[in-house]
Automatic annotation (TrEMBL):
PANTHER family: TRANSFERASE CAF17, MITOCHONDRIAL-RELATED. The keyword Amino-acid biosynthesis does not apply. Keywords: Methyltransferase, Transferase, Transit peptide. It comes from Corynebacterium occultum. This is Glycine cleavage system aminomethyltransferase T. One of its GO terms (biological process) is methylation. The lineage of its organism: Bacteria, Bacillati, Actinomycetota, Actinomycetes, Mycobacteriales. One of its GO terms (molecular function) is methyltransferase activity. InterPro entries: TrmE/GcvT-like, YgfZ/GCV_T_CS, YgfZ/GcvT.
């Protein structure tokens, strides 16, 4: 299920809360996420050797995603990352925090690095560009580069969470529940690891996570020396991932919604796995799903008794022939 424990799913009118973001700035309580701090003079090079993002020379205020992969390139952890005043802050779902923090601590060895978990809480501003009041000074803020509306994440001391929300409301923000945020996240093609992916998932299954052009994503394609990079390089240069994360539009006339983890089928044959399911103010029920590439253009799919279709806008742009494949074809005289 979607990670939502301990924060408001909505405030009584979830679809209206999402619709209001078209003309207002919503403040979403995402304090259920945990934040890991990595500090010390060796922190940039330390994290650069472990994670998929290039971090050895980032400037103050750098924001991006980052992945921890296993030796086969499968995703173990995904975090949103910020660099502020000499420290890296990685926020991620609570269920992932202990294993990532333990891994980082085990890898310190002689590096001058300290891994800790400060008492910070995350708030997200969505929609309009609200000016954060001067009285609210976050530990760090992050302007997020994603396919959704204008978004700023603010980390504040957990003890000051309620006061921070009050200051944002006084400045003109409105309360938005996690359901509104989740609908926007699904439309933006941003997965939550536990519900949308599985233990075989590799980075290229999530197109938004691959850094291209000015979009940093969560994977930097021009760095090396991290666990799992061989898989990233091989897929990028020679082929494509066998599956792709896409948005499905679900039949809104069905009496019940399908549940995350259900099989996505075509004519009785399993072609994918359902992830986050949520109701959207414009599309009705929508979902993220990992779908085999061979099934992306088959037409109507089914999740149990519920019909579904791949939203064409969720498909990535064709990157053209891969450089490595082109070189091989040239050697073969094709």
């Amino acid at each position: 299920m979607v990670d939502a424990e301990g924060v408001p799913w909505h405030y009584g009118a979830p679809l209206k809360e999402q619709l209001d973001l078209e003309r207002n700035t919503g403040v979403v309580d995402r304090s259920h996420r945990r934040i890991i701090q990595v500090a010390g003079p060796d922190a940039p090079t330390f994290l650069n050797t472990l994670l998929s993002q290039k971090l050895d020379d980032v400037p103050e205020g750098f924001n991006a995603g980052a992945l921890d992969l296993d030796i086969q390139g499968r995703i173990l952890h995904h975090a949103d990352l910020s660099y502020s005043e000499g420290s890296f802050y990685l926020d991620l779902p609570a269920a992932q925090a202990d294993t990532l923090a333990n891994f980082l601590r085990k890898m310190v060895f002689w590096s001058k690095v300290e891994v800790s978990e400060p008492e910070l809480a995350l708030l997200t501003l969505l929609g309009g560009e609200l000016e954060v009041p001067e009285s609210l000074v976050p530990v760090y803020s992050r302007k997020v580069d994603w396919k959704g509306p204008h978004r700023i994440d603010l980390a504040v001391p957990r003890s000051e969470l309620d006061a921070a929300v009050d200051k944002l409301l006084a400045a003109g923000a409105v309360l938005s529940g996690l359901m509104a945020y989740t609908a926007i996240r699904v439309r933006a093609g941003e997965p939550e690891l536990a519900v949308d992916l599985d233990d075989k998932s590799i980075p290229h299954e999530v197109p938004n996570w691959i850094g291209r052009h000015d979009h940093p994503g969560a994977v930097h394609l021009e760095k090396g020396c991290y666990r799992g990079q061989e898989t990233v390089a091989r897929v990028e240069n020679l082929g494509r991932s066998p599956r792709l994360l896409v948005m499905l539009q679900l039949d809104g006339s069905a009496p019940v919604d399908p549940i995350p983890g259900a099989a996505v089928e075509f004519e009785g044959r399993r072609v994918g796995k359902l992830g986050t399911v949520v109701h959207d103010c414009d599309y009705g029920p929508i979902a993220l799903a990992l779908i085999k590439r061979s099934a992306l253009d088959l037409g109507t799919l089914n999740v149990g008794p519920v019909s579904a279709s791949v939203d064409p806008d969720s498909l990535p742009a064709d990157e053209g022939e891969k450089a490595g494949r082109a070189a091989i074809n040239k050697l073969r005289g094709r």
